[in-house]
Structures are given as C-alpha cells and as structure tokens.
Amino acid sequence: MTEVRVGILGLGTVGLGVARILIEQQGLMAKRLGKTLKLVAAADRDLNRDFGLDLSGVTLYDDAADLVKADDVDLVVELIGGYEPARTFVATAIEHGKHVVTANKALVAKHGEELFKLAAEKNVALGFEAAVAGGIPCLKALREGVAANNIESVYAILNGTCNFILTKMENEGADYADVLKEAQELGYAEADPTFDVEGIDTAHKLSILAAMAYGSEIKFDEVYTEGISKIGAADIEAVHELGYRIKLLGIAKPHHGQVEMRVHPTLVPLSSQIAQVSDSYNAVMLSGDFVEHTVYIGRGAGERPTASAVVADIMDIARVFPDGVAYLAPVMGYMADERKPLETLPMADVQSEYYLRIMAQDKPGVIARVTSILADHQISLEGMQQKEHDTGEVVPVIMLTYETTEGNLQAAMSRITALTAVEDEVLILRKESFNT
Amino acid sequence: MTEVRVGILGLGTVGLGVARILIEQQGLMAKRLGKTLKLVAAADRDLNRDFGLDLSGVTLYDDAADLVKADDVDLVVELIGGYEPARTFVATAIEHGKHVVTANKALVAKHGEELFKLAAEKNVALGFEAAVAGGIPCLKALREGVAANNIESVYAILNGTCNFILTKMENEGADYADVLKEAQELGYAEADPTFDVEGIDTAHKLSILAAMAYGSEIKFDEVYTEGISKIGAADIEAVHELGYRIKLLGIAKPHHGQVEMRVHPTLVPLSSQIAQVSDSYNAVMLSGDFVEHTVYIGRGAGERPTASAVVADIMDIARVFPDGVAYLAPVMGYMADERKPLETLPMADVQSEYYLRIMAQDKPGVIARVTSILADHQISLEGMQQKEHDTGEVVPVIMLTYETTEGNLQAAMSRITALTAVEDEVLILRKESFNT
Questions:
Q1: Alpha helices in B276-349 (DSSP H)
Q2: Which chain B residues have a beta carbon less than 8 Å from that of A333?
Q3: Most exposed: A213, A242, B186, B313, by fewest CB within 10 Å?
C-alpha cells in the first residue's frame, strides 16, 4: 500500500491531536484512502515532555528547520502559528518539494499569496481547511460544494472565544471584563486576548473566505475590523428586548469588481439560524445564486476538531499522492490566472442597518434635533425606544435605522455627538436581517 | 481548453435548473475548473414546450435511451427519478463509458450497490450529492470533510415537505390534513404524498448516509420507517409546552458491527440547532470522535438548490476528466473492498427516550397500574403531565421516559393498551437530547 510520510511542526494541543489521529485512526483512514498515512517525524522546541502518546518510531527534531528538509517526509503539517518562523518553515518545506497542511490563519491571511505561487511552482499541494472555522469543512464547501454558484454573501461567526464571551454575557447578565477573566482562567482565552476580542483573528479568516468566494487576492489589511470589548451587559439586554442577539460577524459581499469585507459586533434576529450558534461554536453561512442559503456549524477551535480538519486536508492530498496534484481543486477555488486583485469597497460605501444608543439629556427638542439630523442625511428610522425615567436625566435613547451607507451614518453621527445635549460617544452597532 | 460534454435526462424543474447553470455560469465554472462544461444533449418525452432557455446547439432527444449511447456525450445527468427506467438508463450510460451524476435517491438507495460495481468496472465516476439534502454538500462533508473521524451518529432532517408541514402546523396550530392540502396546492407536496409524509423519502436518503458513514452496504429495506401523518396539532402544542418540537428525523448510529437506522417523528429540544431548522430547509448533523458535532443546513429541494448540487458533482468529475477518475474520493467514502454488508440493529434493541400519550379514564388506580407496568419493564419516568379536567372523563396522560429499549417499551405498551381503563392507541413518539 502506498505510504504518505507525514511530519508535524509543533507538538502543542493541535499537533498532538493530529499525531493522535494519525496513530490511532491509521486503519480507518487506510480503508477510506487505500493508502497509509504514516507519522514519521515531529519537531518541537521542548522534547523532554510526556506527550501522552507512543511516539516510538517517530523521528523527533528540536529544530523544525531540520524536519522541513528531511528526505523521508512527504508532507509537512505546520502547527506553530504566527507569521514567523512559520512562514520560513513552510516556504522551505515547499522548496524541498513537500506538500504542506497548516492551521495557521495568520500565515495564510498575510503570506498566502506568496506561498500559493511557490507551491504552484514546485507542484505541491497546500491545505489550510483548519485555518478557518476549526473542524467545520467550510473551505471545501465553498471551493467545491457550492462551486457552481456566484457567491452572494458570506456571514460567519469565526472566533470561538468571542462567541463564548458573548453567550456567557447574555446568559449570566455578566459584564465583558468579568467573563473575559473567567474565559482566561478556563483556558478559552489567551493571556493577551487582543487578536481574538478585537476581531483580528476573525479578520484573518474572513479575508481568506472572501478571496475564495469572489476570486480575489487575500487582502487581510483592508478588512474593516471592530471587536467586542466595547459591548456591555446592558447593550446585550437592550437588543434582546428588541428581538436581537449580538454576534461578532465576519461579512463579505461582492460589488461589481469590488469586495466588501468587515468584522464587527452585529445584531442578528433571535429567530435566525446564526443566532442559535452559541458558546465556542462557529458558523459559516454561504449564499449563492442557485443554492440559496447554506449554513455550516461546528466547533471553531480545540485540539480534536482542529486536528480533524488538518487530517481531512492530509487525506485530500494523499488521495492524489504522488502524481495527481493537478487533479485537486485549485487552492483558492479559482485557477491561479483567473484570480484578480479586486479592490476593497470603501467602508463609507458599505450599506447596513444600524442600532444607535445615544445618551441624551431629556430636554424638550433634543430628540427632534437628533431625528432631524438623521433625516438630513437620508437616514430613516425603523424604531426608537426610550425607557421611563425622571425628567431632566441623561437617558439612553435607542434608535434602529433602515439601511443606509456608513458614510451617511458617520456624517450624521459627527453632528449628533456635537450636540451639547448628547453626552458620551454614541454606541453604533450594525444590524443584519438575512431574510432566511 | 478541455471540454466536458454533458447530456441531461429529464428536463423537469431540476433538469432545467442544471441546464440553466451549465449555460449561464459556463464562464464562472471555467474560471474555477480550467475546463469548459458544455451542455450538448438533453432528453425529454415532451420536447414541444417552451423551456424558457435558449437550447440552440443542444441535441434534443425524445428517447433517453438514445442519449445514453450518444458518442458526443462524456457525462450523463439522470433527473428522471424513480427506479425504472432510470436504472436502465444509468446502467446503459455507464456501460457506454460515460460518467453519471444523478439526484435520484430512490435509485441510489435501491440499486446503488449494483451501479457502484458497474461504474468501477467501467472506470467511470458516479455522483449523487443532490440525492441527499438537496443543495447541502453533506455527502462531500461526510466522505471527505470529516473523513478522519469514526462517525458516532447521523441525525438529519431530510424531507422538505414534512418539515414544511410540521413548521406550518406549529406556527398556525393547524391540523395535518389541512396543511397537507395547502402544501399540495402550493406545489410543495405531491398529489400522492406517501413517499414524503410516510418517511420513505427520508429512509432512502438515510440509508445512503448510514452506509457512507459506517462503511456498510446500502440497506434501504431495513430502515425502520414511520411518517408524520399521525401527528395532530394538539401533540405539537403539548410537546412545545414541555420544551420540545417535533421533527421527522433520520437517525443512524454504529453498534460494534451493526448499524442502527430509523426514521420517525422525534421530539427535539427547542434550544437545539436542529429545532431551528424550519420550513423546507434540511439539516444534517454529523458527529465524529474528533470533530465533535457538525451541522449542515440548507434547502433540501427545489430547482435551483438541487441543480447546484448536481453541478458540483459535475465539476468534481470534470476536475479529474478525462484520465484521473482514480483520484476521486471513493464513491461511498471507503475503498470498495473495505465496505462490509453490516447487519442492521433490530428495532427491539434500539435505545431511545420516549414521549407517551395515553388516553386513560380518570379513575383511582389507573395511573398506578400504568406506572407499575412501566416499572416491570425497567422503564423510568422523567416526567408526567395530566391536565385539569372533570372527574370520570377520558383524559390524555403524557409521560416522558428515560432511555430504554424499544423492545422493553413495546412489551410494556401491549400490556398498557390492554387495560380496560386505557382507550385508543397510545401515541408513542421518540425523543432525542443531542447534548449539544
């Protein structure tokens, strides 16, 4: 039986998960593939640990730079994470004619284009299903499952930490800082949570999905990105009363040669499928001109789900090993010479509905001034809410708008925040209806 | 550019949808494939119609038997439906060396094994993504996306007509017969709805999923099958009060060399993801030992979603055309010689929780007799409910059981229905928790 010899860079949680599958499910995968996947090598800076796995027969390297050049390795799995040295190791492996599978969304979002070219030159495969939405085979669904469609939109919950925090804030009425602390203690959030909670991780993943959906190049730096750290327990409760839930969404849509890409907390209807996706689950909703709406839900992170996606990529490559790489679906869903560096739609031109929370003094004429400014900028209100209170207080006024452009909204907001009767920043959240 | 020449059998709604994609999205697909998909032929018994599509350049046959032998066709799409003559046409196409894509679940469920062998002999590909859950690429997810996993369970909503009827019954408090009539008038249900509402269509699809999940042969005839025609508006309301919703589920699980397969109305928790799947949407929940739970949701039927899945199969085959069929994932997810004719778990051994609606005379001792019989058969109650009423009436008593075997339950039920104080049949519904 043909053997595919696998080497793993990084024996952290996901690396050990991949090793575990390769060892424990070797028989199952041989039945599915007609080939044997064999773990032959692994690299980690700390080899003096109990890995909880029998790695006898596996060559262990304390320097990944040696593994990526090893003659007896056909396929390298990169699970180090981050930009460097991961980029160098992956590039070196490719230059040595090895296929590569990675779970590294930062690497693909930032250096993907360069690595795709290199892999094409060397006629090797590059897989990164695990980089987007963990265990969910959503890249395969997008690249192959709905490939007959013009993709009309991508809406996705792509960060398990944020979804866990938002779910817990809602269920317990707890504040952001308290839930983050608990998530850190449980190991669900990093000590420095910036990448997760500020939406950067979601933007990495969204930029990959958008490029694959619309045949464009990956432009991570151009994704509009807001995180969840400004959301309070009161906001979650207020939107719930209006029939919505707050999710950190990545959104990508095509616009006649431009691509809209944005990541921000978003009001979604309680009755929508995406609103039901709780805790650390991820969801990807792909809509196409023939398939209509499809939604893919699963664990977005974790040793075992992520390892499942890594090994699915290994199996796809093993299936065409050693001579059939050209028969794989193209890495980004379009033939390389058909991919275009499409422009990113300026945020000012993005259309959305909005939820506004304005802290206003309860004086005659204030609401009239605010609504008149909105009208000046062609912004229509779907609804407005003001709780009972004592006269003269500063009270939150909540407004829901119909669709308008971000440019219009920001122009109106700068005039509204300048009103002396309006205190603090206006909280601006975007709102989606989906029509599903 | 390499051309793949496609012929369609049956220009009904799905056939015209496939033709429309092949014509209108030819450019898009060429960008994704590096090959051209060309609609060259179509067969239909009634060619004297306005197809609403420009079919100039397409050879039209009024006898499908001619198309399947045509020299200028590389790939035949079978959209006639039913067992015969579809089976003969597909077999003839394969014998003439043509690849085949079909949306025909009845055909695959009943004659799949024979057709797989024939296709292997002739070295051609056979695709049927559209046969299960319409537009949702769930077979690809199962065969490739979660292929590193031992599949632990499949739970699926596979029939859009039933899901539409159950959703409407719940939303409107309407009775089954009225909603069915409306669905028929709207074209959502067939004039003879038996295949849909009695669960046979779901059983066709489930038998395919089960065989692919567990490496067994397709055994449609052995699927335990119950439909939705016995469900009343009162049942839907009663289970809703208990925190559940009724869905027609297909369920398949592995049991050490045996496979459990069953289709029946099922109580699912209102908070579960599958409970949110409404109207004609389908959902497939695949759980694996590494990936945990994944859920795939989308349109289960309709011209355009089904056509999307058909063309995804055509694209998979086109990608390896003309010489790379061996590089495709095996048709049923396992190498042919690794597939086993696993036994079906006898229904008496299936474990489930139950919802029982017993029409009992309100006399002293009746409930005690019923619960004592349940206890005799080791059946524990999770809860019991009896509405207020006048003494002496016949009243519905609702009982929820913990997990027990179907054998135990049926033994208890035959004793309970024999009680003179129990009138009518006991309504037995199964209940699932999922733990998601």
A1: 303-320
A2: 32
A3: B186
Q: Which domain holds residue A114?
A: 3-135+304-338
User: Rounded distance, CA B304 to CA A92, Å?
Assistant: 45
**More confidently predicted of B24 and A385:** B24
Choosing from B98, B105, B205, B247, which is the catalytic residue?
B205
pLDDT per position as a tens digit, A134-145: 999 999 999 999
Residue A422 has pLDDT above 50, yes or no: yes
Q: Which of A245, A294, A313, A323 to mutate to test the interface with B (most CBs of B within 10 A)?
A: A294
Taking an 8 Å cut-off on Cβ atoms, the answer to whether B141 and A146 are in contact is: no
Which tens digit of pLDDT belongs to each residue from B101-110? Answer: 999 999 999 9
Q: Distance (Å, rounded) from C-alpha B222 to C-alpha B344? A: 7
Residue A34 CA to residue A32 CA, distance in Å, equals 6
Nearest CA of chain A to the CA of B141: how many Å? 6
At residue B366, does pLDDT exceed 80?
yes
Q: Are B79 and B18 in contact (CB under 8 A)?
A: yes
Paired strand residues for B293:
B287
Please tell me whether residues A40 and A116 are part of one structural domain. Answer: yes
Cβ-nearest to B292 among A33, A293, A304: A304
- pLDDT tens column, B307-341: 999 999 999 999 999 999 999 999 999 999 999 99
Same domain, A143 and A289: yes
Nearest CB among B25, B29, B319 relative to A329 is that of B319
Find all residues with CB under 8 Å of A359, minimum gap 6, and list them: A394, A395, A396, A397, A422, A423, A424, A426
A/B interface, count of CB pairs below 8 Å: 203
In a domain, B121, yes or no: yes
How many CA within 13 A on the CB side of residue B306? 24
Q: Which backbone phi and psi does A9 adopt, to 5 degrees?
A: -100, 110
User: Does residue A195 share a domain with residue A166?
Assistant: yes
B chain contacts of residue A140, beta-carbon cutoff 8 Å: 137, 140-141, 144-145
User: What whole-number distance in Å separates Cα of residue B339 and Cα of residue A24?
Assistant: 20
Task: Identify any residues that bridge with B400 across adjacent strands, giving them in sequence order.
Answer: B355, B383
Residue A292 has its nearest CB partner, among B135, B288, B316, at B135
Catalytic residue status for B35: no
This model of the complex carries an ipTM of 0.96
Cα–Cα distance, A307 to A134 (Å, whole number): 8
> Looking at the structure, do residues A192 and A48 belong to the same domain, yes or no?
no
What total of structural domains would you count in chain B? 3
